[in-house]
Design a protein that fits this description.
Blueprint: E1 2-7, E2 10-12, E3 18-26, E4 31-39, E5 46-52, E6 63-65, E7 73-78, E8 83-88, E9 97-108, E10 115-121, E11 125-129
Parallel strand pairs: 2-11
Antiparallel strand pairs: 1-3, 3-8, 4-5, 4-9, 5-6, 7-8, 9-10, 9-11
Length: 131
């Protein structure tokens, strides 16, 4: 089991910057990826960015970004603090949404040699870009 707590949302003017954070607790070694999704009014929830957690933690994790945020958003991790950040720059009104932290895990099922992937979600934090 993994628990996620997001923070950092708020109101920011167009062109401004904001940093979101997500602190994970629980079965940290089970986490493969952590990332951010967002959902705007009337829209489907969509991937924003994702970063790998498992593997060689001495090197930077591999990342993936949605096209609308490439070059403006940066996802990073602090393994010692079990925290993932989303640095958002050059914010636009189109970025207004509820942002959700997520974690993907691989966990044992109780059946020998069988494991499954699970997804966990934070409560969401509102980001509003407006003047």
């Amino acid at each position: 089991q993994v628990q996620l707590v997001e923070s950092g949302g708020g109101l920011v003017q167009p062109g401004g910057s904001l940093t979101l954070s997500c602190v994970a607790s629980g079965n940290i070694p089970s986490i493969n990826y952590m990332g951010w999704h967002r959902q705007a009014p009337g829209k489907e929830r969509e991937l924003v960015a994702e970063i790998s957690i498992a593997g060689d933690l001495s090197v930077a994790g591999s990342t993936d970004y949605a096209d609308p945020v490439k070059g403006r958003f940066t996802i990073s991790r602090d393994n010692a603090k079990n925290t993932v950040y989303l640095q958002m720059n050059s914010l636009k009104s189109e970025d207004t949404a509820v942002y959700y932290c997520n974690a993907e895990t691989t966990e044992e099922t109780g059946i020998s040699g069988v494991s499954l992937e699970y997804d966990y979600w934070g409560q969401g934090t509102q980001v509003t870009v407006a003047s």
